[in-house]
Amino acid sequence: MLQHVLAGGQSRPRRVMATLVEWHDSRPRASLADARGWIWLALVAATFVWMSNPLVYFPSFYLSLGAAMVWSKVVLVLSLPWLRLPRIPWPWLAFLGLALISHRWSIQPFHTEVSSTVYIQIAALAVLAAANCEPVVIAWGMAVGGVSVTLLSLHALSEDVPGIEYSSESGMVFGGLGTNENILAYTLLVSLAATLALGRPRERVPQAMWFGALAIQLYGTYRAGSGTGYLTALGLAVTVTAILGWPLVRTARRRIVVAFMAGGVAVLATGLLFVTVVLGKELTTISGRAPFWRATIDSSMDLAPVLGAGWGAVWEHPWDPAPPNHIALDIYYRAGYPLPHGHNFFLDVLPELGLVGLAAVLVMVAYVVREIRWAGLHAGSSDPVAGRLMLLVLIALLVSGITEPMLTVPLGWWSLALVAALPRQRLLRWGRPPRARRGRRAAALSPAASRSTPAATPPRHAG
User: Fold this and answer.
1) What is the pLDDT of residues 207-253, one digit of tens each?
2) 31, 46, 48, 217, 400 from 53: Cα distances, Å
3) Helix (H), strand (E), coil (C) string for the chain
C-alpha cells in the first residue's frame, strides 16, 4: 500500500510523511542479540521492582516512580539513534482521558490531577518499553524483576530491615519489599507468568537461568504464604496445561480429549488438596471482603453511579492516597470496617469513575483478549511469545484481582499496559494477518506479504 502512496499523485508532505513512517516501522526493536536489548532488559527488571512499591527501601511510591522515570530517560537518551515511537492501545487512552476529565466533577480535584499524572507516567513507561523491545526482552525483564524482588526481600529479612515482616495471630509474617504477603505473592506471580510465557529455552545456559528463575519465584511465593497467591499459581498452572495440550486436543480423537480433560481436573484437584491440606490455606473464603464489596457497590450506586467521584479522589491507596472523604467514610460505615481500597480488579474503579469507568475497564480486558487471538500462542502464530505473555499476565492479574485491586496497583497497571502494547508495534496499520475462517488458524503474515500489491494477487478464474 505504501508503494501506491509513494508512486501516486500524493502531495509532497504526504510522501515525506509516508517515507518517515516506513523508515520508523522498519527499525528493529531491541533484542538479546545486541547490547541495546540487555540495557532495556535491565531497565524493565528495575522498573518491575520499582512498580512493586518496595516500601522497605522507598518509603513512598512517588520516590520509586521518580527513580523509574529518571533511569528510563537515561535509557531513552542512550537509545535515541534507534528510538521507536509507541503505538498506544486506544482503550488506555480512553481510560486515561476519562480520568483526566473527571477533574471537572471530582470531589477532590487536586488529588485527581495528581493521580491522573501518576498513571499517565506509569503507562508511558510501559508503552515506550513495548515499542522498543522484542517480547522476549520484556518477558525476561519481568522474570528478572521477580527474582530481584525475592532476593532483595530475603536480603532485607536477613538484615532485619523494618517492615519486612510483621506480627500476627499466626506468628511472624514475611511481607517482602511491599510489607504485605499478598503484595509479595501477586508481584511474584506476575513475574512467574512472564517466565512461563518464555517457554523452556533449548540452550543449556538460558535453560538453567529459566529453571532458576522459576525456582526462586516459587520459593518466594511459598514464603509469602498468601491464599490469593496460591490460587493464582493454580490458575497459571491450569492455563499453561491448556496451552501445552491444545495442539494435541485439536487433532486428537475423542478418547484422547477426554483423557486430557480428566488429567487437567486431576492436576487442579491435586493442587487444591496440596494447598489446603499441606499448606493449610482455605481458598474458598475471601477473608470477609464480600461485605466490603457490597458496601462499595451500594455506596457508589447511591452517591455517584455513572461517572464516579473523580479518579484518585476516594480510596486511601498506599501508593496514591486520597484524604478522608464522605464517599470513603460512607463505604466504611456500610461495611462496618475500613479498607484502603476496593480489594477487587473491577470494583476498585467503581466509586471513582462509576459505571462508565467500569465499562472502560471491561473494554481494556476485551482488547487484550483480542490481541491474544491475533498474536497466537504456538509456533507458527503471528507473535507467540507476546500472545503467551499477554494471556498469562492477564490470568495472573484477574485471579489475583478477585481479592486485590490489580488494575490500579502500580505493578498491575504497568504490566497490563506493557503486554497490551507489545503486538503490532507499528505506526502503519497495514501488515495484519487475515482473519481465520471456518475454524482455520490465520497464517502469520510476513513483512514481504504485508507490502504486496493487489496486482500481485493471482486472478480468480470462473468455475
Assistant:
1) 999 999 999 999 999 999 888 899 899 899 988 988 887 776 666 56
2) 28, 12, 9, 17, 17
3) CHHHHHHCCCCHHHHHHHHHHHHHHCCCCECCCCHHHHHHHHHHHHHHHHHCCCCCCCCCHHHHHHHHHHHHHHHHHHCHHHCCCCCCCHHHHHHHHHHHHHHHCCCCHHHHHHHHHHHHHHHHHHHHHHHHECHHHHHHHHHHHHHHHHHHHHHHHHCCCCCCEEEECCEEEECCCCCCHHHHHHHHHHHHHHHHHHCCCCCHHHHHHHHHHHHHHHHHHHHHCCHHHHHHHHHHHHHHHHHHHHHHHHHCCHHHHHHHHHHHHHHHHHHHHHHHHHCCCCCCCCCCCHHHHHHHHHHHHHHCCCCCCCCCCCCEECCEECCCCHHHHHHHHHHCCCCCCCCCCCCCCHHHHHHHHHHHHHHHHHHHHHHHHHHCCCCCCCCHHHHHHHHHHHHHHHHHCCCCCCCCCHHHHHHHHHHHCCCCCCCCCCCCCCCCCCCCCCCCCCHHHHCCCHHHCCCCCCC
**Distance between CA atoms of residues 303 and 330, nearest Å:** 9
- Shortest CA distance to 218 belongs to which of 277, 143, 276? 143
Residues 390-417: pLDDT tens digits?
A: 999 999 999 999 999 999 999 999 999 9
Q: Please count the other Cβ atoms lying within 10 Å of the Cβ belonging to residue 382.
A: 20
- Write the pLDDT tens digit of every residue in 353-378: 999 999 999 999 999 999 999 998 98
pLDDT at 338: 93
Indicate the pTM of the whole model: 0.85
347: which 3 cell numbers? Answer: 470494583
Strand partners, 165: 174
Write down the pLDDT at residue 428: 55
